Each structure stands twice: as C-alpha cells, then as structure tokens.
Request: fold
Amino acid sequence: MRSVPLGRTGEHVSQLALGAMLMGTSTDEPTSVGMLERYLETGGTFIDTADCYAWWPSPDNTGGESEALLGRWLAKTGKRDDIFLATKGSAWVRDPEPIRTGDGSWETMAAQFAGAGGDTLRHAIDDSLRRLGTDHVDLYYVHVDDRSTPLEETLEALAEIVAAGKARYIGWSNVRSWRLERIRALAEKNGWPVPVAVQQEHSYLRPKAGADTLSIVDDEQADYLRANKDLTLVAFSPILKGIYDDPAKRDGHQIMRLYAGPDADARLAVLTEIAAELDVTPNQLVISWLLHQTDPELVTLIGPRTPEQLEVALAAADIKLTEDQLNRLDNAGA
Reply:
C-alpha cells in the first residue's frame, strides 16, 4: 500500500486509512480484530477512531467502545509501534437519549457535544489514552469545530497535550476554511502546534450550490488545501454510504440532499460508464479516483463494517486509471 506525506511533518502514512468507528459495536470484536489484522497485512498503517465512537448503534452504547476495542487489540498483539493512531475529542455526547428521541437534526446532536474547552480536552485525551492502553496518540483532532470556545483556549490546551507527549500532532475536523486560517494564524503567532491534518467529507460527487459545506470539501476549501501543502486532507465518507453502486439506494438517501442535481447526474453517468469499462464497481472506482489525486494529495479514510467491505476497498487500491479515464472523470459535470 502506497504511503503519502503527512503535511510537512516528515511522517508518511498509508494512503488508505482504516476507520474503526463501528468496531466494538455494529462490528463485533472477533470480526473487528480480523479486519485490523488484514489491513496491517496489506501494508496499512493509519487507524482512525474517536472518543464518541460509537454511541448510536444501540441504546446500550455510550461511546468509547471503538477505542476500548483497539486498546484490547494493541495490548494483546503489541502492535502499537506498527500503526499511526489517530483519535478525536470534542464530540463526546454527554447524553445520547435526547438525540435518540429528538428530531434527528444536527442542532439537537451538537447541543450534546462536550466541546473543545481546555479542561474538556485535557480530560478527554486522558480518557482516550486509558481506553486505548497507550501513553500517546500520533494525531489528535478537534472532532467538531467549537465556535463557543475561544480558539486561544482550545489551542493552548492542545499545545499542553503535545508538550506532555500525549499527542504528537494535532488536526481539525468539520471546519470551514476561514476558521482553519484563523486557527493556523493563532497557533503560529503563539508558538503552539499548527494542525497538520484536516478531516472532511470528500468524494467524487461535488456539493451542490447552497449546500451546507461545514463538513464537506467545497471548491474554496480545495483551493485552500492546494495552497497549503503543510495540511493534509483526510477524506472521510469517500463512497457516501455506498450510494454509488445502487441507484435505488441513492434515490431519497439522506446523504444525497447535499449532492443531488444535474452535476451529480452527469458525474454519475461517467463514473458508471468507466466502472463498466474496467469491470469494477462504482464504489471501487471512486476510491481509486481519490487515490490517484495529487493536487492536493490526500488520505482516503474507509470505514468498512464487514470483512467483505474491507476487501472491496482494498482491491480499489490496485485499480490503475489511464490519463484519459482520469480526464473523463475529472471533467464530468453539468
């Protein structure tokens, strides 16, 4: 598996990262362990989780299950030094029940987030390290940008976390570009660690005009990333819940509300055509297309629930696209 630079840190991470979001909940422990071992066997090194993973699969889940499973696996195998380990804080849910019984809106969920206050993050990283059974993570994200907390407070706490050796690098997720620029400027001004990674939703389809792009890479953010090579994009939800393979699934799927329209239709038509030429699935072709991107170069974060889904994603890394196929995919659109 090919590796890519992480910003300008000197670190290299596998271009295909493995998301452990549902490990320990929807995906049981033996299956999760098998998937982790298989990923490492193929040369993967970059494993991603968060303290809030995953409170939503059942009423018995409260968050922390994914980190705890990874901790047990690392303790049993001794493979901590074989992986680049990322986790996140700030989106720990204080009480899942109002979300489960509420209207399902982002606002209802965000009201329960722990936030990125200084003391909150100091406690959160300690709790994550305890569950993970390690003394440090390689990358620690602010999971959801918190505008209610002064950035200086958040950045100072993250600087303390790095200085204490609890995290090697910091990142941000679910954040707009103007906030990233402010974060970076404040960090540089005060001599605090600057984010080296930003984790955002990014796929082959482009968000439609008027879409809320807080969590999605739009044209402006792509331009920002091209101009700032010290910041690596980690692209989550690359296959958009698997909608590319199934027109029936796309029709009315909640995720399509941010993408549906003439541009999406045109890109899906070309994607389907080239997938047929290569005898691969559209989902696989999207992953391959992302792995071929160089401006900006990025990490593609997959989140398989089953070994079969993992194998499909891993196979995508072997798909070779010609210059003509890449041009057709890149230039498709309304």
